[in-house]
Amino acid sequence: MEKLLDVIKSLSDETRLRILNLLYEKELCVCDIMETLQISQTKASRHLIYMKNAGLVKDRKYAQWAYYSLDKDEKMKFIDSLILDNLRSMELYQKDMENLKIWLSKKTIQCN
Amino acid sequence: MEKLLDVIKSLSDETRLRILNLLYEKELCVCDIMETLQISQTKASRHLIYMKNAGLVKDRKYAQWAYYSLDKDEKMKFIDSLILDNLRSMELYQKDMENLKIWLSKKTIQCN
DNA sequence: TTTATAAATTCGCTTATATGCATATAGGTA
DNA sequence: TACCTATATGCATATAAGCGAATTTATAAA
Question: How far is B100 from A99, CA to CA, in rounded Å?
Fold first, then answer.
């Protein structure tokens, strides 16, 4: 985690909260997020980069894919609480998680 | 707490985080905050109103003063964690708390 | 009723955000 | 090599934020 304020700023956008909620489940590539949230590639990529610059997520490049995952550290306690106590009781984020499951079972190998 | 996103947005500014940290201690009027944080009246007032609109704080008008305090509710868990686990270990916010004590002991009756 | 003080609001300006569209890059695959 | 596919980036734009200076409103006190 870089500067606390940058982390909080990356939580202050609904799309990024939705991404955070998904990444809290597992590492995902950009296309998983686009498909699950039904957002444009540009939007997904830009927000992920924003979150990466804030130190909230990290990336791993494999072949043509960019996999993103949470960059957890000891200061993430309040983020855990935000996700578990707030997001996870909200319909939007619950649906996103369902859609993620559906998408992951649908896609054959990697991203397509 | 109104919309979660509005609450998070009101956490995404350093001045507002500093105000939050002070209000976590006790109810304060605008002048206490100006003096403690050494910021302009306009700035203090505007941020407090922003936080009020987000549902993070509430106000109480008495005579010519406006007292602000946290509008706590069951969804504040992640905010407690943010303050106790993050802010309170950072020098800036610690100093602000010291300055608050000094200011409160200095001022005679109410605000002056 | 005039004056002083606390707080809120308006104006103008500057900077940051979010986003779409188009394009570039980079790694597979035919 | 030529061509996909995944991701990143440049450009343009619309909107929101943050802030100082000045003004207004509200209340209290002289």
Answer: 48
Nucleotide lying nearest to B62, CA to C1' measure: D27
Distance A40 CA to D16 C1' (A): 22
Nearest to B58 by CA among B76, B73, B71, B45: B71
Provide, in whole angstroms, the distance separating residue A59's CA from nucleotide D26's C1'.
Answer: 55
According to DSSP H, which parts of B1-112 are helical?
A: 4-10, 14-23, 30-37, 41-53, 77-81, 91-106
What is the per-residue pLDDT across B30-55, written as a single tens digit (0 to 9) for each? 999 999 999 999 999 999 999 999 99
Query: What Rg, from alpha-carbon coordinates, does chain B have?
Result: 13
Q: Decide the pairing of beta strands B57-62 and B65-70.
A: antiparallel
> Domains, chain B, ranges and CATH?
4-105 (1.10.10.10)
Q: Are B36 and B99 in contact (CB under 8 A)?
A: yes
- The pLDDT of residue A90 is 95
Centroid of chain to Cα A21: 6
Reported ipTM: the value is 0.90
Using a 10 angstrom Cβ sphere, with 0-12 exposed, 13-18 middle and 19 or more buried, the burial of residue A65 is: middle
pLDDT at A63: 86
CB A73 within 8 A of CB A1: yes
Taking the model in full, what pTM does it have? 0.92
